[in-house]
Known about the structure:
Elements: H1 3-15, H2 18-25, H3 29-43, E1 48-50, E2 55-57, H4 59-87, E3 90-95, H5 105-114, E4 119-124, H6 127-135, E5 141-145, E6 155-163, E7 165-170, E8 180-181, H7 183-186, E9 191-193, H8 197-200, H9 204-208, E10 218-220, H10 224-232, E11 237-241, E12 251-256, E13 262-269, H11 276-287
Parallel strand pairs: 3-4, 3-5, 8-12, 9-10, 9-11
Antiparallel strand pairs: 1-2, 5-13, 6-13, 7-11, 7-12
Amino acid sequence: MNTTQLECFVQVADSLNFRRAADELHLSQPTVSKQVSSLEEELGGTLFVRTTREVSLTSFGSSFLPDAREILRMSYAAAERARKRAEGTELAIGYSDPNDLMRLSPVLDRLRSESRGLHITLGLGPRDANVDKLAREQFDIVLGFEGSSIEAAGIVFRSLSTDGLSCIVRKDSPFAEFDEVGYEEVAGYPQVVCLPASIRRRGSKSQEAIPKTDEAHTITCSTITEAFCLVDAGFGYALVPSIETMPDPDQKALRWKGEAKATFGAYVREGFRDGLVPRFLEIAEEEYRQPRLHVV
């Protein structure tokens, strides 16, 4: 199956006329007929009912048409991405949490000023799924926390920032008067926990980083955004990696006394030397070292 076969099939399906389809594709009518026939042979089914007066889709052809359109769309998109990469103007970045983008803007701003015609594609999804897309060259970079679950061959992690945890509270919380809290202060209070897998899976030491409380009073989040939302809704304090920027002016970030660390960075394919990826990493390493201002 190739794009010429699919283009001929889709064009005939749209016009229900082989001659008009050939004109649209700038091919001869026999060529279009041959491509459709070869596709039918490959698929093992008849796509069109042909008579001397009309052409119509079979039920098999109708069911295959959406798939054919999607295959062509993906093929065109992949070709366009490859062309832009060859020109050094395309960068596709995957991320797992909207908060990941808050510190990305200055990186992209600097990159844009250096790279004429830069085109950026951003994709939201689970970190592991994004890394799988990275391995399949659908992304050039995946932002996220370092985790032991990543096992994709040919993928490496570049650290951009390593920091401890922050305890996020509402400004009307009894803890808001403090600048630093730990286990002793918050034990027993309702909590929202949003820790990266690298901390949660570190064994007994990681469990010590999470205050012990009734499970009924603990909510585990998958994104920082969810944690901020639940704190704002009054579900207690939240433990989050402090490298994330806190967006809500009604909240305060307190330093957490625990030793747990979270490492945020970029997953990239091995062997990159030229193009936008190494320059992105250079700029990101500079920008992510800059001090962050918590809203207090």
